[in-house]
Amino acid sequence: MPDNKKSVGRDRGRAAAGQAYELSYLKRKHKLTEEQPRKIIREAGSSREKANALAEKVKKA
Q1: 10 within a domain of the structure (yes/no)
Q2: Is the separation of the CB atoms in 36 and 10 below 8 Å?
Q3: What is the mean pLDDT of residues 45-60?
Q4: How many domains are contained in the chain?
Q5: Backbone angle region of 34, left / alpha / beta, with phi > 0 → left and psi within -120 to 50 → alpha
Q6: Which tens digit of pLDDT belongs to each residue from 8-43?
Q7: Strand partners, 14
Q8: Which residues touch 33 (CB under 8 Å, ≥6 apart)?
Q9: d(Cα 38, Cα 26) in Å, to the nearest integer?
Q10: Residue 6 has pLDDT above 80, yes or no
Q11: In the chain, helix, strand, coil percent, each to 5?
């Protein structure tokens, strides 16, 4: 079932590595390379908060 982009419920806190727009958003937001967002989401699980925290660490390194 496709992800509902208009959802403001529980789905807002989740990130999906299988969704191209999720990867693109994370890449643009944190100025990452092509493969970094997928790796970050896999490490963080589906938590958007953890994914953003990991992306900040990667960006600083």
Answers
A1: no
A2: no
A3: 91
A4: 1
A5: alpha
A6: 566 667 777 888 888 999 999 999 999 999 999 999
A7: 47
A8: 27
A9: 9
A10: no
A11: 60, 5, 35
